[in-house]
From TrEMBL:
This is Oxidoreductase. The lineage of its organism: Bacteria, Pseudomonadati, Pseudomonadota, Alphaproteobacteria, Hyphomicrobiales. PROSITE patterns: ADH_SHORT. PANTHER family: DEHYDROGENASE/REDUCTASE SDR FAMILY MEMBER 7B, DEHYDROGENASE_REDUCTASE SDR FAMILY MEMBER 7B. InterPro entries: NAD(P)-bd_dom_sf, Sc_DH/Rdtase_CS, SDR_fam.
Length: 243
């Protein structure tokens, strides 16, 4: 049923760990109802957040996304913010990487992000209100030799976010793109290439480690809470020493 809160519904993909989980916690503390989506339902349930609809969703599955949005909206009203956050980072030497790992990155990080924003876009246009937050990366702004296809997927998100902003501004729908550097999450679990993982860890140690995901979450919450006619178009947050 309807929440005890009068705040609008916040939807997050990849809410089972890392930045998505931290963002769910931040919005929950601020009193928002949530639609949380990821493949690991148990991890979202363990967060034990109030006023939360949890759905097992693979962002490659458009029907599952649509069904989850319908369930969330039936409980708490229209999705006012969609955070298209789910992503994987199979960083590797491109010459030896199994092509199936490119397929997964392309399907989840690009098509999955499109599926996610598409699931709520028509509703936001009709309401003349809403916020899309799209997860890119510093690797969507600059390239690294062992990030080849990952960079491709994140540059894609940047380009699409810019085009969507051109299109959706006339409907008062906000489009924000997030480009973090090294954040302390489980994202490295996607790195199967031992050499790439060792180099990443060495660089991370050299810059003094990553930033906690709660700082990314705080930025998303605070910029979302600005007046509807104020849009922070891009957020780039990195460890100070990261280049
Ligand atoms: P985590 O690995 O901790 O979180 C990734 C999340 O994405 C998990 O909740 C995972 O849930 C979900 N996910 C992965 N594949 C799918 C799928 N097919 N369908 C639905 N959900 C999926 O890493 P982060 O929190 O770091 O990653 C979040 C985003 O931030 C990613 O897009 C990543 O590329 C980006 N990013 C991360 C940076 C970092 O340094 N950590 C830097 C820049 C960008 P589950 O497995 O349960 O489905």
């Amino acid at each position: 049923g309807r929440a005890m809160t009068d705040k609008p519904l916040i939807a997050i993909t990849g809410a089972s760990s890392g930045i998505g989980e931290a963002t769910a916690i931040a919005f929950s503390r601020a009193g928002y109802p949530l639609l949380l989506m990821a493949r690991r339902l148990d991890r979202m349930a363990a967060l034990n957040l109030p006023d939360a609809v949890l759905r097992q969703v693979d962002v490659r599955d458009r029907a599952a996304l649509a069904a989850a949005v319908a369930d969330g909206e039936a409980a708490f009203g229209p999705v006012d913010l969609m955070f298209a956050n789910a992503g994987v980072a199979h960083l590797a030497d491109i010459a030896t990487q199994p092509p199936e790992d490119w397929d997964a990155m392309i399907d989840i990080n690009t098509k999955g992000v499109m599926n996610t924003v598409h699931a709520v876009m028509a509703g936001m246009i009709a309401r003349r209100r809403g916020t899309l937050v799209m997860m890119s990366s510093i690797a969507g702004r600059k390239v690294y030799p062992d990030h080849t296809v990952y960079c491709g997927t994140k540059f894609f998100v940047h380009a699409v976010s810019e085009s969507l902003r051109e299109y959706l501004s006339a409907y008062d729908v906000r489009v924000q793109v997030i480009s973090p550097g090294v954040i302390e999450t489980e994202v490295l679990s996607g790195v199967k290439d031992a050499g790439t993982l060792a180099a990443y860890q060495a660089n991370k140690a050299a810059i003094g480690g990553g930033i906690g995901p709660e700082h990314v979450a705080d930025l998303i919450l605070s910029t979302y809470q600005m007046p509807q006619n104020a849009l922070v178009q891009e957020i780039c947050i990195t460890p100070t020493r990261q280049r």
